[in-house]
Amino acid sequence: MTRPVTTGDAESAARLISFGMRPKQLPGRDVVYADLVRRYGEDSAFKQLVNSVAAGLGLLVLDVSAQAGAVLAATDESVFEIKMDSYARQSKIRERRDTEKVLHGLVHLATAALEACRILDERAAKAEANNDPLSDAPELEQAWRAYARRPAAAATKDGRLASDTTRGMVSRALRFLADQGFLVQVNTEQGGTYRTTPRYQVQVRELAADSAFEELLALGALAVGDGAGTLRPSISDTL
């Protein structure tokens, strides 16, 4: 007979979700978190309860493991969803909003798979050499061509790096991902080297159903590593 769910079970489920919403918190650093992760893996009723509580909050449990902890993603229209509109708006961009959203999205995709940049660059160069119309190119390739034409750097009136340059976009993306617990900055040389975390690798793997990520999969450029991967901006895109 299935044991009835208690208020204590509900509190524990909510606490596990709460841990998952703290980007830099890991089970290895907190005994309570580690115990809840272990329970999720061993107790099917508790696992179902956690998933149900998360669903009620507009969240999807992508994975729960001792290495990555509870990895969550917001569902469509969830109060926790970070829309590209809001992300781009925080960069104080007032013009070409649709273009800016696509370019910021491309920066995040490129962060997930730097190899995609090389492939897209080669395809774009070949297409332009053949005078192929931009409108006939796949969506991701169109975005890359727009990105390649964007200036790498420009200063604002107060001497700061302009947010709508490729350097500004890449720097913002890397800082944002680090703040969310998806990247860890290893050093600051040549603009910084970042290491991907298990939390980020789960996100990339589980959310590959998104159309943009599907294009990266089709390029053969997206792979989930073993936790040792690094991300370093090219010299043209570092601060």
Description:
This protein has helices at residues 7-20, 31-42, 44-56, 84-89, 97-112, 115-129, 139-149, 166-179, 198-206, 211-219; strands spanning 59-65, 69-74, 183-187, 193-196, 230-231. It has 239 residues and is mostly helical. The strands form 2 sheets. It has a 3-stranded antiparallel β-sheet. α1 crosses α3, α2 packs across α3 (44-56) and α6 (115-129) packs across α7 (139-149).
Task: Give me the Rg, rounded.
Answer: 20 Å
Terminal-residue CA separation? 61 Å
Ranges where pLDDT stays below 50 over 5 or more residues in a row are 221-239
Helix-strand makeup class: mainly alpha
Summarize the helix and strand pattern as letters: HHHEEHHHHHEEHHE
Largest sheet data: 3 strands, antiparallel
Q: What structural keywords apply?
A:
239 residues, mainly alpha, three-stranded antiparallel sheet, elongated, disordered C terminus
Provide a concise account of the structure shown.
50% of the residues lie in helices and 10% in strands. It is mainly alpha-helical. The radius of gyration is 20 Å and the shape is elongated.
Can you lay out the helices and strands and say which pair or pack?
Elements: H1 7-20, H2 31-42, H3 44-56, E1 59-65, E2 69-74, H4 84-89, H5 97-112, H6 115-129, H7 139-149, H8 166-179, E3 183-187, E4 193-196, H9 198-206, H10 211-219, E5 230-231
Antiparallel strand pairs: 1-2, 3-4, 4-5
Helix pairs in contact: 1-3, 2-3, 5-7, 5-8, 6-7
